[in-house]
Amino acid sequence: MIHFKRLDHILMSIPEGQTAEARAFYSQVLGLSEIAGYHPGGAIWFQIADIQLHLREEAGGNLSARHPAFEVADLDQARQRLTELGVAITFSSDIDGRQRFFIRDPFGNRIEFLQYDEAKTPV
């Protein structure tokens, strides 16, 4: 059994070349605080209460990178359980302070599982 702790973030796609417009909308119109730094795939990140919203340009296609990310108590245990059930595990770029992997559900939806390093656990 996988012990889910919380929804950590959601990645939403924006059209290619629209990062500046997305940044203006989410920060100025919605009033979200942008999380500074370099993020995988040139994404921009915003804080919403205790979760994050990640926006990244995507050209489109059959297998989107859009996904929810679930924080789990024991990432190794979750990976082992999913592997035992025949679920394919994939990996992506590293993010400082957290370990992660991805799966796709039977319908092609991407789902991220992550665990923060103890020193980096979000407040």
From TrEMBL:
Top-level taxon of the source organism: Bacteria
One Pfam family it belongs to: Glyoxalase
All residue ranges annotated as the VOC domain in the record: 6-116
Listed Gene3D superfamilies: 2,3-Dihydroxybiphenyl 1,2-Dioxygenase, domain 1 (3.10.180.10)
UniProt name for this protein: Catechol 2,3-dioxygenase-like lactoylglutathione lyase family enzyme
Protein's organism: Spirosoma utsteinense
Source taxonomy: Bacteria, Pseudomonadati, Bacteroidota, Cytophagia, Cytophagales
